[in-house]
């Protein structure tokens, strides 16, 4: 599939090569495609945010929450496309990173209200080190997938399998209100309690 990764920070710079290695056609959408800071030698095409989004079938928003809605606007009309929201709406609090939104709203729903794309929430539940090496784990790490469009969720689930994850359907997009707090468990463990950031969640099989 043609996949536009919007942003080339910690998450985007890992997801781009992961999908490229899986055989998909990937381009980055960045603020200035001519800025040499975005060229890290990975060989993946750089386009403007709008050009990448308009070219793609699947758009992945992987920019910081503080600029997410601005980046979404730069994408333009996304009718007929799938948009993967891997954001966690974070802010700095008294004790480090914390959620900027509560349980009555989510980043995914805010994005959904501002786009004609079919929004799917996933790839927010672990850090970027896991995303680039999901195939290397003895068990496939899980990724919950939430959205209101079953066809879009099935497509995204297939993409997740391509890069090594075990996707689990987590119902409608409103369930992003639970997935974003779930991400805080991983974030707190990694940044507050010294957990190896390469650790991931997976479901152990039960006794037969």
- DSSP summary, beta strand count: 10
What does the overall shape look like? globular
Strand proportion: 15-25%
Order of strands across the widest beta sheet? 3-2-1-4-5-8-9-10
Distance between the termini: 38 Å
What radius of gyration results from the CA coordinates?
Answer: 16 Å
Order of helices and strands: EHEEHEHEEEHEHEHEH
- Point out poorly predicted stretches: none
Helix content: 25-40%
The pLDDT mean sits at 93
Largest sheet: 8 strands, mixed
Number of helices: 7
Can you give a write-up of this model?
The protein is an alpha/beta fold and 208 residues long. The mean pLDDT is 93. It is 32% helix and 22% strand. The chain starts with a strand and ends in a 17-residue tail after the last helix. The strands form 2 sheets. The chain has an 8-stranded mixed β-sheet with strand order 3-2-1-4-5-8-9-10, sandwiched between helices. Strands 6-7 form a two-stranded antiparallel ribbon. The chain contains 7 helices and 10 strands.
